[in-house]
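Review box. Two proteins, two foldings.
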Amino acid sequence: MESKKFFEHFKELNYRIYISLIVIVIFFTTTYINYTSIYEILIRPLISAGYSTTDLVAFTIYEGFQVKILNTFFVSLTLAIPLVIFILGYFFKPALDSTSHITFLTYLIIFITLFYLGIFSAYKTIPIGINFLLEFNESEFILRSQNYFQLISRISILFGLSFQTPLVIYFLIKKNIIKRTLFTNNRKEIFVFVLIFSAIITPTGDPITLFLFTIPLYLLIELVLYLSKNKK
């Protein structure tokens, strides 16, 4: 009986994965068709840093195609995340017996909101990081297109995932896995930890980008502590 339930759950999981892949393919196709507009958005941080598209150089004959495919996949996956989260998220809902549908839906919405907030923060701070890194070049340099777009995608994903930290903290406090007082009694230590964590996450290493990432993340943690003040 248990093996039958296992295979039923496994079948449902496969079904949800297939649906998620179809959603991603649809977004991928749409993004590929509208790639010119997407490219203009992705290149905007470089322009904001005072450079132009002519500063980007391809090293191989196939690099342009490779960059286009990777950018299309990154953007399509980013846009498809809300639907994918809803499709896959409700598969794990039965494991949280004490969580109502409204609460679970709220968690999913907050997760998606924080993810996009992180990407937006990355998008706005990347020009500062680019300027900081390129100022160290005392001679002529070549800005490879592949490296630039890899930097954009990696920082965006890291920011998006890192901004889930407050949600994780709130969940752990609500489930009494950790105590709220652990954070409220050690605020200075928590800030230093967030600062160190931010230094690891932000690959540019400049102090401005570091604090532009640290302050919002720490304020989100403070907001979580305020919202969970009755969950001691």
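Next protein.
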Amino acid sequence: MTATLITKYKTCLLAGLLMIPALVQAQVESLGIASITPTDSLKQSTDKAGKTLSLNRVLESLDSQLLDRFNATRKFQLVAQSDLKEIIKKQDQANGGNFNLNDKSLPQQFKLAGTKYFLITTIDDFQDYTETATFEGTGDTATKRIFRLSIVGKLYDSTTGALKESANFQTGSDDFKQIQQQNHYVVKSGDLSDEMMVAVARSMAEKIANHVVDVLYPAKVLIKRDSEVTINRGEGAGVAIGDTFNVFALGEEMIDPETKVSLGREEVKVGKVKITEVDPKFSKAQIVEDTGIDKGAVLRKPQ
């Protein structure tokens, strides 16, 4: 082989290698995540209760944790929040009636160029305080921690503006107590410590990220070998050793006879698996029940 041919070969090989990341990236959908905001009524109530600082700390932690948890799923190309703020600002201008709505430079509501999905999350309830009860006759007292955090998440298909999914995510006193005990956090009365705040925010962000991934990209069987399957969910994507999943085979697509809109595909349960190994990009599971598990089958956690 001549030097010229070798040089051309190396050039073509290098060009092909450089194209691989672009090809992989093109298969990853983009997701815009707006900053989490409280409802107006919640802002007013927290102001009156003197909990504005606590709420703001939760908001700040949730914003960063939500980005981290979505990034850990390895399913999306994330759009920077700073970019979204500017887009949303322009959308508000367009909807305010003070601008020419025929101006093509103003983006339409929930239609973001280059962004496939758009997630809006709102906190509609936040409570963090203690209650002390006194027992009649003995005068003994008991203190109970009350904690609630409720977030409404709305996922839009930004190419059409259609609402694809809406869900409510909650963390209550029981979840709060479990997180506190697992991590051995000391919590001051009615005031979240920095460590506890991050732990609560991370738990909530993980719930939201995993739900969105389940809606758009359900966990699926990649490989079935003997009594073991490999699935397309790894570390940080809501999979842990010991978790069990029901396995469903996908049937025919279901079409609403009136609206002609697809309702998804029929799902028939064909088994159950238990996670035995979790790697960064995939997991392995032992088959517990099998009446037809095969490649492409969908996995869902029991409700």
